[in-house]
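tool_call: predict_structure(chain=1)
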Amino acid sequence: MKLSEIADLIGGRIAGDPEVDINGVSGIKDAQTGHITFVSDKRNLQYIFNSKASAVITKEEIKGSPASQLIVDNPYLAFAKTLEIFYKKPFKPIGISKESVIGSNMNFGADVSIFPMVCICDNVSIGNRAAIFPHVYIGDNVSIGDDSIIHPNVTIREDVKIGKKVIIHSGTVVGSDGFGYVQDKKRHYKIPQVGGVIIEDDVEIGANVTIDRATTGNTVIGSGTKIDNLVQIAHSVKIGKNCLIVAHVAIAGSTELGDGVVLAGQVGVRDHVKIGNGVMVGAQSGIGHDIPDGQAYSGSPAIPHKSWLRAQSIYTKLPEYIKRLQELERKLKNYKLTTEDTE
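tool_result:
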């Protein structure tokens, strides 16, 4: 494509040659002649002048750049859209494979793709243009919305509702039993998990994620939320809209997250906690209490992020402080001995 054609599709202003040929998209360090790349912050400006890229997406014009420039408000977003232009395959439905197992009382939308070795149980509804890849299991009374993609080896248990434009990656299990037991004479009596799971629109769920069904009612994942690989979401959890849940997070039962919450890698959240809108939690933190709206927390147990930074600064200096304290103790002891001798 010409750079001008890309600009027509994603917007932006061109500085340089609008007719330069673009045949690929790469990161700034890997770009070759004919590629378009991007710069999102000033730290990477140094690489532009040694790059072989034919064009660069940038927020501000770079004086002296050897590459033509596409100037946009959000370079990272423009880069993502350019990747879609070059690499996203057009949708081509394959229909329903005869090598899949289909239950009774089904409702299929138009242009679906049901690949071989899929098992779909009874009373299932699958929306328009949905794609179900091989070795997916879909239990009774499941609904999957338009344009959703279920990748290979996903298990969707009974009574799960999945919205539109949802992507679920391989190995994920949605609707397994919650971890609920009651003590009975030193034995663990299983509490039946009879609820369901609701995945709202435009949610993406990574590989090998587990989302448990509610004990009663529903576990809910709000629209626009993105969940990384290897995340555990327990029974009856309610996650708000547009949240980011990073890898290795574990959220215990009946916890509620507001909208726009960010949980960094390996965060653990105890049960029955409420985390407010817009909260950000640093990596490896342990959340054991409610957090109000708009706060940033870190550490285990988690404390306000600024306090955690001060604590970390002190922690790194503890060996020095101990050494100084021991020196003061030694001097004090010598002073006392000297005083006793003079008396």
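agent: Residues 154-301 form a domain with the UDP N-Acetylglucosamine Acyltransferase; domain 1 fold (CATH 2.160.10.10). Proceeding to next step.
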